[in-house]
Amino acid sequence: MSDVVLYEQNGAIVTLTLNKHETRNAISEDVMVNAIVAACDRINADASVRVVILTGAGSAFSSGGNVKDMKDKVGMFGGTAAEIRDGYRQGIQRIPLAIDALEVPIIAAVNGAAIGAGCDLAMMCDLRVASEKAMFAESFVKVGLIPGDGGAWFLPRVIGQARANEMSFTGEPVNAETALAWGMVSSVVAPEDLMSAAQKLAERVAANPPHALRMTKKLLKESRKADLPSILEMSAGLQALAHQMEDHVEAVDAILEKRTPEFKGK
Q1: What are 103's strand-pairing partners?
Q2: In 3-state terms, what secondary structure has residue 101?
Q3: pLDDT tens track of the chain, all 266 residues?
Q4: Longest CA span, the chain
Q5: What single-letter DSSP state applies at residue 225?
């Protein structure tokens, strides 16, 4: 795994840390894109993983696109209009597809500034916990650009259309307190408590049967685009599978016997 994304597993919980200090964890360069996608592929291939925490090293969560590269018109920001379009599709747009394809829940532990594509990266996650120092900005318009990484799809689904419009049209930052009031994050904690808060939330998620957890996430994802009859049909099929799992039997027995269940992913 590339050192620009640190991969650490503790039991059923994987922590991914964006680790490119010189760009404040920008995610527009190929090395970062490749590392994030590879981490997601690795997680999906590992049945022992039940939940993921994503955070940033240093003072920023992610600065999004590398503004210096924009100025120099290099990397995904260089070339003809057709080449730039392909650069987005073959570059940064692979990140939302990879994160959306994760079979297990992912929690963003937002330690600092989440700017532009960095803000969108946090919105791609299923849950968000923020430091008091966190700040979110859908700031593409400030540099004369549009959300090229899927932010126009993710942000309204998290905070609603009107607030997403406000953030996108003004490009102005939202602090952690406002993010909490808007439902952008689940909780705001002191900076020194951020990772422990994210870990505790991850443990609450990971305590559940892994197959039921993955199927629940799949169902919630499908509900974004399917009608009610389709979701009911899918729910019936997945529920039939869940009823046959050993972990379902263990969960029921543990409730009746008033003990902590021991799930084996079967």
Answers
A1: none
A2: coil
A3: 579 999 999 999 999 999 999 999 999 999 999 999 999 999 999 999 999 999 999 999 999 888 888 888 888 888 899 998 998 999 999 999 999 999 999 999 999 999 999 999 999 999 999 999 999 999 999 999 999 999 999 999 999 999 999 999 999 999 999 999 999 999 999 999 999 999 999 999 999 999 999 999 999 999 999 999 999 999 999 999 999 988 899 888 889 989 888 888 88
A4: 67
A5: T
Q: Are 263 and 247 in contact (CB under 8 A)?
A: yes
Cα–Cα dist 213/232, whole Å: 18
20-36: buried (b, 16+ CB within 10 Å) or exposed (e) per residue? beebbbbbbbeebbebb
The CA distance from 110 to 195, in Å, is: 9
3-state secondary structure of 104: coil
Separation of alpha carbons 40 and 44, rounded Å:
6
Cα–Cα separations (whole angstroms), residue 247 to 51, 54, 236, 253: 17, 27, 18, 10
